[in-house]
Fold:
Amino acid sequence: MSWIPFKIGQPKKQIVPKTVERDFEREYGKLQQLEEQTKKLQKDMKKSTDADLGLLLCCPPGSTARRWDLYEAAGSCNGPRVTRNAMSKAAVKISSDLLSNPLCEQDAAFLGVVTAFDTAMRRMDSFNQEKVNQIQKTVIEPLKKFGSVFPSLNMAVKRREQTLQEYRRLQAKVEKYEEKERSGPGLAKLHQAREELRPVRADFEAKNQQLLQEMPKFYSSRSDYFTPSFEALLRAQVVFYSEMRSIFGDLTAQIGRAALSDELRERENEGRLGELRALSIVGDD
Amino acid sequence: MASTHAEEPLAEDTADHDAHIYEEVMLSERMEHSQRLAVEELITTEASYVHNLQLCLSDIRAHLQKKQLPGLDLEGLFSNIDDILHVSRRFLRGLQDTATQEHEQLLSISTLFQEFKEEMEMVYKIYCASYEHALLLVESYRKDPRLQEEIMDTLTATVPHTSASDLSFFLVMPVQRVTKYPLLLGKILENTPANTSTHEALAAAVRAMTQVNANINEYKRRREVATKYNKAEQLTLRDRFARLNTHSIAKKTTRLSRLLMHEAGIVAKTEDKEYDELEEKFQSVASSVTALKENVASYLQHLEAFLLPTPHRCELQMEEGPAQQYRRFAEHLHRAVFPEFRRRLDRLVWKPLCRLAEMLVGPQQLVKKRLDKLLDYEEIQERKSETGSVTYDEEAAMNTYLAINALLVAELPRFNQVAMQLLGQLLGSFSVLQQDLATEVLHEAKKEVEQMPHGHMLLPAFWRMVEDTLQQSGVQLRTFIQAFETVTPSPLLQPLNPAEERKVLSLVSKHGPDKLYQVTSNVSGSKDMDLTLQRGQIVALLQSVDTKGNTGRWLVDAGGPRGFVPAAKLQPYSLGPSQQPKMQMPALESGTERRRHSYVSPEAPKPQVATFTPAFQVVAGFSFTARSPQELSLQAGQPVVVLEPHDKKGSTEWSLVEVNGQRGYVPSSYLLTVPVQEPVGWSLPV
Structure:
């Protein structure tokens, strides 16, 4: 970059052309948002570490989106920290509690049903865990890494800013001397001030240019960067839900009487409840 | 017809004999007649009964229903009178059919009763059990003038021909009717000659209907007992206290002592194995229902919280590709699939489960009450065996216990069985719901995966690919980081003066070269321990955090004073490893290691891959035009080699330097010593 020739007619403050500044702001602005969103996403994902579905639903595709309000991972809202994994664990508890109930000893048929149920739940839970691990590797880690670039970026921008300040200061100094009388010592001072200015200006130009080059590159790299993560997310889902479907398909074949419609089931339940209500020992309200 | 009994022909009593025969014939005729009358009575009363039921239902009740009176409990009043009507109609038809059969009529009637007895028991027991309640309602409505008026109005509108003053006139009919059956049958029976098959049949019918009535009464009693005790009482502490009186205290004390005696083995517990088993099973059922309910609740809670946040519309910057696909997928799940799942779960599992849990209360109360009453019972038994008699109240108490016990023994098995069936059904539904959910999600996911670039890759290959890609991306990221870090810090304009140099040396020796920082702009301390420093000064880092834990404020050693400075105004300052912080380097002349200077403009030769050995480099700070042959012209920024830091006369104002093969003197003040920062230049982007 050549020295920008020192134009006397330039307005006092305007040492950096507006377009340049605007470009810089734009690019940096985009990246600032990107950083914010990456951080937020990472936080949310961390919150639902064990989550899979809950996690995934909260992972906004294109976490790099502008003004992305994230699906709050359950947990980033005020309620209890909820994760799909918590759901998974709750499901396991359903069956394990029943299994430990003395009813199972007393009634063989019941024991059969509950055991099958329990097995299914545990298997689902373990697949769930696998899925979570996979996601940890293919989504959360990369996210972290991506976010780790930002501190360096920010430092660089700060340094540019500092240089800019210095540049401005010296520029003002030069302009001041220029306005004074141009003779003898004044001239020498002016000369010296100019000499001081030059390297600083060069430095600023350098920094500015470099950042202007690198920032867009970084910004556009996000697309390629995150694409595999999303693919991985979806594939992991497919894997998990295939397993889940087959596990519960088996279970239903055993205990569920799959062919019944919802209405029929409801009616059956009503039937039983009605039978119970008809008993005197059951109080009717 | 008439039974012939052995007659002793009395010669002298042919008249008597005739009279006997006549009497007998008359008798049997009378019997026949009475019998026929009784049968007729049965049928006609049944007909009128049915007629009245009809009236009650379709006229009176319908009329009241149309009025839509809010305070009127039609269900409580009329109970299951529809069912009774239904049964009675059929029964009447059956009776009327028998009228055509001459000889077989009585047999048919008996058979009819046998056929209908179960149905009758079922419908009548319900009605009778709630009849008391209905009466209470009628009474309460009588006291409400507005309702009473309405009711009277209805009665006059629908059944003016009766003299009914209130509903009870009609409501009592079924109660009366069912008790009448044994009586009516009995009348027929007594007018039927004994030792015939018809007599047998009729007698059996009478017995059957009597039994039906007994069962109805038993059922009624149980219901009363149950209703009395199966509510869990919500008493406040104050209420409980209010209930205490000597009697209740005494009662409770007795029970308690008895219970203790049981536990201590002093007194034999009344063993009722059948009951105990039943109760145990019931408790297991109750505990599993409760546990299940809790767990499903927690599952639902998690599901709920998970569904709570809603996806927001966003502007994606990743327009196409997997990110967008994923978003579609996630949105669909969130909007449709999961809410559906939750809805079904609610309907098919949660709600029935809650109702089941509610139903536990009644039996649990009764079980508790039974124990109390058992203790009373035993107490009274003991006294009875001592004194030989018991009071009326005590008798009643004993009966209560027996009633509760009988009730529980009769109904608990059914309860347990049905409850368990329901549990099984619920578990089955839960499983189906999970399966359906999985299928839905899978379907959606597969749809999107289809369209993804690597959608058809086999799994192991896919994971490997992802891993590789991520690794590469990691490398790329590192280069970005480097890129940003190589944005050079500002060069400093001031060379280090000797004093500063010495300070730097001492700092290095005290703290080590890696702790040096240079002040990038003037710092003026505002607080107590803050330092005021000039731009360009070198300090050594003592702590990168202040006493309050603020990491933006660092404790530094300024080569004398120590204090805090803002971290933002410091940049790392490095010395060469084997470096003497002196500008005049003979070492510089050793050409072996050209330490390069990092102050470059972007146009400077790019491949300045960092030689990460930091060093000092002297450069021209300003341009200088030589004005004599001994002087040398300089361009600002030019690196120079200092040959001698003074001129021939020893003045340090001038230095002998070499630039581009030329030598000459230049003002020393025009020279800068700048440290080389690492890394050098920009690293190349990806």
